[in-house]
Specification:
Blueprint lengths: L1 H22 L3 E7 L4 E7 L13 H15 L5 E7 L3 E8 L2 H9 L12 H13 L12 E7 L9 H10 L3 E7 L5 E3 L3 E3 L3 H11 L3 E4 L2 H14 L2 E7 L2 H19 L6
Helix pairs in contact: 1-8, 2-3, 2-7, 4-5, 5-6
Length: about 270
């Protein structure tokens, strides 16, 4: 009871301290992505993605891990996605609207798989999409990333190494993820599909990125976690005056409630 009698005075003292602290305009350091950071995902939808060496199959495992990756990216990063098989479809240019990319991934089904693997064409399309609105500023290799997700080898279209060279000119990093067994997998009873790890390593190395192999779902999640850690965050000072003011408002509300309640201490 004695404590309750003194509670209004205690609250008023705390509120006064918080208001003084707020008037001082406190600053806090937070870490945000580099300005204009863009991540463009290039996702393979060739027929070989139906292989079941990753449960339940490469396509479903790949899309679920990719959705988790996009959701966990720090705010302030522009994301986009292109799907490729024998041709390329840019379905979402890089923007701050994560749901655009997530919805594309959620819509992927085995019935949408197509023949062909145009890795080079996918990279060129990714370069065009991620470079849009650059106004001549090529940025740095820390803030523009193509994530190439594939389980095969290029068999149509532009030479992947030529495309990677164009990415390097534009200061764009390519992080490559190879899905499945490098020795190859039989699909549809007689079709052998192989993962061209050598080319994927060369593509990434040329642009300052890395190649990762994922042979199961846990590998995929670990790969995406490692790629996320490569996205450079920079310190930025921001004013946090709203925090003491918000706490003061809450305490004032409590104080007013006490005045109106049966206690009526003030």
């Amino acid at each position: 009871i004695d404590f309750l009698k003194h509670l209004p005075v205690i609250l008023k003292s705390i509120i006064l301290c918080l208001l003084i602290f707020g008037i001082a305009r406190p600053i806090s350091t937070i870490y945000l992505p580099m300005k204009d950071t863009k991540v463009m995902m290039l996702f393979d939808i060739s027929i070989s993605m139906e292989a079941e060496d990753i449960s339940p199959n490469r396509l479903i495992a790949g899309k679920n891990a990719a959705i988790k990756f996009i959701k966990e990216l720090p705010d302030g990063i522009q994301t986009g996605i292109a799907l490729f098989s024998g041709n390329v479809k840019v379905l979402a240019n890089p923007s701050f609207e994560k749901p655009n990319v997530i919805n594309v991934l959620k819509g992927l089904e085995l019935s949408k798989l197509e023949p062909g693997t145009a890795i080079g064409d996918a990279i060129l399309s990714g370069i065009e999409a991620i470079s849009a609105n650059d106004n001549g500023n090529t940025g740095s290799m820390d803030n523009r990333i193509l994530i190439l997700v594939t389980d095969g080898e290029a068999n149509i279209g532009t030479d992947p190494m030529f495309a990677a060279a164009q990415a390097k000119v534009k200061n764009i990093t390519i992080q490559s993820i190879g899905i499945g067994n490098p020795t190859g997998t039989i699909i549809r009873g007689s079709i052998l599909t192989r993962l061209d790890e050598y080319t994927l390593r060369q593509i990434s190395s040329l642009t300052g990125g890395q190649y990762f192999n994922a042979q199961d779902l846990s590998d995929l999640r670990e790969v995406y976690s490692r790629i996320k850690s490569t996205i450079k965050l920079v310190p930025q000072e921001t004013e946090i005056t709203f925090i003491p003011l918000l706490i003061s408002f809450v305490l004032l509300s409590i104080l007013q409630f006490l005045k109106w309640s049966k206690f009526r201490f003030a």
